[in-house]
């Protein structure tokens, strides 16, 4: 069989994707190295400074796997068996992750839920439900594919 050449556009996109993937790998490696250096520096500072003094330590943002987040949303809707508000979903996420329930964390969780709920609404999985309350409620109308 004769091998069919890919159009220049596709091969160019594949090449660009490879470049970006390699760049991300380098960034991950550098981030890991910097965080290790920071942890060693903090450990050294702990030898000389009282642990009760807050140095405003850098806490790297917690990365959440998209698959974990999707699984959480599916389980939340299945367990509830009813429409859910963004606030309710955000609070459940904070409890699930063991995070402190404060205005900032809840706002971030609600924002993230909103992005995912809107994306899932585009796929016809979730939809907004008009309710008598002023809250916007969301309902799972179709199952997630490949779940």
Describe this structure in words.
- The chain is mainly α.
- The protein folds into two domains: 7-50; 66-140, Arc Repressor Mutant, subunit A, CATH 1.10.10.10.
- Helices cover 60% and strands 7% of the residues.
- It has a three-stranded antiparallel sheet.
- Helix 3 (86-97) crosses helix 4.
- The radius of gyration is 22 Å and the shape is flat.
Annotation, overall tally of beta strands = 3
Percent in helix: 55-70%
Measured between the Cα atoms of the first and last residue, the distance is 38 Å
Instruction: Give the mean pLDDT.
Output: 79
Q: Main attributes?
A:
147 residues, single chain, Arc Repressor Mutant, subunit A, flat, 3 strands, mainly alpha, three-stranded antiparallel β-sheet
Question: How are the secondary structure elements laid out?
Answer:
Blueprint: H1 8-48, H2 66-80, E1 84-85, H3 86-97, H4 103-122, E2 126-129, E3 137-140
Antiparallel strand pairs: 1-3, 2-3
Helix pairs in contact: 3-4
How would you briefly describe this protein structure?
60% of the residues lie in helices and 7% in strands. The protein has 147 residues and is mainly alpha-helical.
């Amino acid at each position: 069989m004769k091998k069919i050449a890919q159009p220049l556009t596709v091969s160019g996109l594949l090449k660009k994707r490879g470049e970006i993937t390699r760049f991300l790998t380098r960034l991950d490696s550098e981030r890991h190295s910097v965080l290790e250096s920071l942890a060693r520096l903090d450990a050294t500072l702990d030898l000389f400074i009282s642990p009760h003094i807050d140095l405003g330590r850098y806490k790297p943002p917690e990365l959440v796997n998209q698959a974990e987040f999707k699984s959480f949303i599916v389980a939340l809707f299945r367990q509830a068996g009813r429409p859910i508000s963004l606030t309710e979903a955000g609070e459940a996420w904070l409890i699930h992750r063991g995070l402190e329930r404060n205005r900032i964390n809840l706002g971030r969780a609600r924002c993230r839920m909103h992005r995912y709920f809107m994306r899932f609404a585009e796929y016809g999985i979730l939809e907004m439900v008009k309710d008598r309350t002023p809250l916007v409620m969301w309902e799972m109308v179709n199952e997630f594919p490949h779940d």
